[in-house]
Amino acid sequence: APQAIKKVALELAAKSANIVLADADFSRAVTQGVMTLMLNSGQNCNAPSRMLVPAGRLDEVEALAVAALARVRVGDPLDVATTMGPLANGAQFERVQRLIEAGIAEGAKLVAGGAGRPEGVARGFFARPTIFSQVKNSMTIAREEIFGPVLSILPYRDEDEAVAIANDSPYGLSGYGSAGDPARARAVARRLRTGNVHINGAPVDMAAPFGGYKQSGLGREWGAWGIEEFLEVKAMLGYGEGD
């Protein structure tokens, strides 16, 4: 691209924050956050891999997250009972294992899962669905995109700290926010330095522009903004003279 001065659009890494505000329906928000992360074995660029929750409700969130994780069944993708298949390849499997081990070594609380394959799975690139709690935003598992079924739960004191933690990332592709008061959720969403924010579980909208801030990429796809990425602008100066 540089040799020919080609315009590029890049969708790169992400470490999306999922802020659960104090007035949210915690059962719904936490369960949805866990299940959304586990889609495609965690291999989604916009996965809500950092769940930010009020510090005083951390125990409750852990219990809800573990209960949600119990619904995930890892195994043969051809088995109709399976809800999660393997990772893409051996290199990705080894990366996920290294990052899980880093979380343990750096002192995060392992709530569920861990390194290795799930119980009863002897071969293949199957990772254990894993939940860490009491995660600090300086930890490796909170800084690096794992691209696997690994959730980090981070406590916050108030909304300002939640927004600060969410924005304290080199990435900014997507974000999530839940609140009982939609206006409160929208106010927090406006403060997030990220290209997309899903409010109260709103799904992906192919008519909305998709793309990131910071090291999450350049440009947008989908909707009118996605079409404009393929266009060039021409200014015709003096066009109206002589009419």
Care to describe what's here?
With 243 residues, the protein is α/β, with parallel strands linked by helices. It has seven helices and eleven strands. It has helices at residues 26-38, 58-69, 90-105, 140-143, 159-167, 182-191, 223-228; strands spanning 10-11, 17-20, 50-54, 109-112, 130-133, 150-156, 171-172, 175-178, 198-199, 213-214, 217-218. Helix 1 (26-38) packs across helix 2.
Structurally, the number of domains stands at 1
CATH class: Alpha Beta
Please provide the count of β strands.
11
Largest sheet: 7 strands, mixed
CATH topology: Aldehyde Dehydrogenase, Chain A, domain 2
CATH superfamily: Aldehyde Dehydrogenase, Chain A, domain 2
Mean pLDDT score: 95
List segments where confidence is low: pLDDT < 50 over at least 5 consecutive residues. none
- Pairing-aware structural class of the strands and helices? alpha/beta
Instruction: Give Rg in angstroms.
Output: 20 Å
Report strand %: 15-25%
Q: Helices and strands, in N-to-C order?
A: EEHEHHEEHEHEEHEEEH
CATH architecture: 3-Layer(aba) Sandwich
Task: Please tally the helical runs, counting DSSP H or I stretches of 4 or more residues.
Answer: 7
Helix content: 25-40%
Principal-axis shape equals globular
Largest sheet strand order: 4-5-6-3-2-8-9
**Cα end-to-end separation:** 42 Å
Keywords: Oxidoreductase
GO molecular function: oxidoreductase activity, acting on the aldehyde or oxo group of donors, NAD or NADP as acceptor
Protein name: Aldehyde dehydrogenase family protein
Domain Aldehyde dehydrogenase: 3-235
